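Researcher: I'm preparing a figure for a lab meeting and need a structural model of a single chain. I don't have an experimental structure, so a prediction will have to do for now. The sequence is pasted below. Please return the structure as C-alpha cells so I can convert it later.
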Amino acid sequence: MRIGLLTEGGYPYVSGDAGLWCDRLVRGLGQHEFDLYALSRTERQEDQGWVRLPPQVGRVRTAPLWTTHDDGVVYGRRVRRRFAETYGELVAAVCGGPRDASTEAPGDPAAHAAAEADRFASALYGLAELARDEGGLAGALRSEDAVRVLEQACRAPGALRTARTARVPDLLTVAAHVERTLRPLSLDWYADDALGSADLCHAAAGGAAALPGLLARHFLGVPLLVTEYGVHLRAHYLAAATLEEGPVVRALLAAFHGRLATEVYRAAALITPGNAHARRWQERCGADRAKLRTVHPGMEAARFADVGEGVRGSRSADPGTLVWVGRIEPAKDLISLLHSFAEIRKAEPGTRLRIVGAPAEDADAATYLTHCKALAAQLFPDEAEGVHAVGDNPVSFEEIGGPEIPSLAEAYACGAVVVLSSVVEGFPVSLVEAMLCGRATVSTDVGAVVEVIGGTGLGVPPRNPRALAEACVALLRDPERRERLGAAARARALELFTVEQNITAFHGIYLEIVSHSPVRRVVVDDEGEPLPFSVPAEAHVPGCWTETRFTTERRPRWAEGAPVRATVPPPVPVSVGEGA
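Model: Understood. Here is the structure written out cell by cell.
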C-alpha cells in the first residue's frame, strides 16, 4: 500500500525531531511505498538537508512553517464576507461564545462542548475550501479583517472572561500564531496525484503535522492515523508556561490548540500513543478510547548487546560510579541531582557521578550547563590524596565521542547505577537504553517512567534530593540486587521496546485501517472494465503483481459531472522545496 507520511520539523531533515523513529519505520516496512510530506520549522533546518532516504520513499514534498508565500490574491467583497463569516465561526468556537445566546441550552456542558467542537471543525474545513477555491488564505489570516473578527469574538456574550480583556497587542499575537498554525491549509497537496493517491495518511505528530491528514480525509476520503509519542497539546502547555505572554494570549492559544487536538482525535481512524501517560492525555482531550492503540517507541537493541550480554549487570562497571545520560536542560533537574549527590557522598564517600551529555539547542540550556558546573565546583571542591597531588572533582561533565566514552553504550557501561532526575518527561529514551545495557536504574516518577521500568528499577518523587540519594545508596550497597534488577530490566526492554516490536505493531495497524476503510477508488483494467477485487490479497506481498489504473470516485465540487478516467501518475523525482 502507499502511505503518506506527514511530519512537522522532523523526518527527512537531518536535525528533525523523531527523525530516527520515522526512518526506522520506513526502512522496516519495505513492502509498502512511502510518500513524505514534510513541514519544516526553520530556514536553518532546510539548509542542513535531508538524511539518506531508502528506496521505498517514492517522493518528497516539503513546505515551510517559518515563512509563507503570498500568492497575491486580493479578495473581493463577496469572498471577504465569506472569509469573515468562516473565520468568525472558528474564533468564536475558540473564545467560547455561543452560536445564539437566546437558544443556548444551559446545564448541558457535554452537548455544548460537542456543539463547539463541530463548530470549530466546520469552520476549519470551510477555510480550507476557501483556500482551494479562491487562494489567498494566508494573506487573509494576516489581514486587519482577521484581527477585527477576532476582537468581535472576544467581546461577544458568553466569551471567555479572560478573552474579554484582550488588548490590541494580544489580538495581534493570537492572530499571528493562528495564521502560522493554519498555513498547511493553503498547500497544494490535496489532489488526486498527491495525498489523494495514498491509501493511508500517517501523521507523526499532532497539531500542524496532522492538518494535511485532516484535509486529505475531508476532501479525498483518505483514512488518517495519528501517532503521538509526546502529546502536542501537552507540549504547548509546557512551552506556554515559559513564555512571557500575558494570560489573554495563553488562554486563547490553549483553547485554539485544544479545539484542534479534539478535531484531530475525532477524525483519526486510529490513534497510537507511545505510552499510557500520553494515552491518558489524549483521552482527556476527547480521544475515543476505542481508537487508541499504545505502541511503544522502538529502540535498536543490537547497539547495546555487547554491554547488556557480554558483561553482565554491575560486575563490569565501576561499583562506585553513578551515571546520568541525556540532553542537559532545566527539565532534567540536574540541580536536584547534584544536591542529592552531596547526600550520597556523606553515606558513600568514594562515590563518583558522571554526567554525560551536551546542552540542548535552546540558548537557555548552555546557561543552565554553566550553572550546573558552578554548583558542582561549589558543592565538591577538588579533592587530592596528598599535599602535592592535583585535586579531582567527583562530578565530571563529559560528552559522547571522547577517548573515555567513544559510544553511547560505553556511557552506560561506565557506571553501576543509571540515574534519571527529570521533573518533566515524556517517554524516557535514556532509561530504555540503560535497561538494554542491563543497568539498575533510579529515576523520578514522572511521565511514562513507571510504565517503562515496571518493577525493574527504583522510583522516587521528583524534586526530592533526599529520596533520590537514599535509593542510590541502597543500590550502591547491594551489588546482587543491582545485578538482579539489571537482568530483569534488559529482559523487559527486549520484550517491549525494540524496533522489531514497533514495526510489527504498525504493520498490523496499517492493515487494520485499510481493511476497515471504504474503497475510494475504482480499479479498472486496460479496457476500462472494473476488476472484481479492488485490493487483491497479493497487494500485501512485496512485488509487482498487477498493473492497474485508478479512477477517483470523490471529486471536488468544481469537478462535479461526468467522471473522467485518470491514469497512474508517473513517479515524481525527489526535490527540495516542492509544494508550498
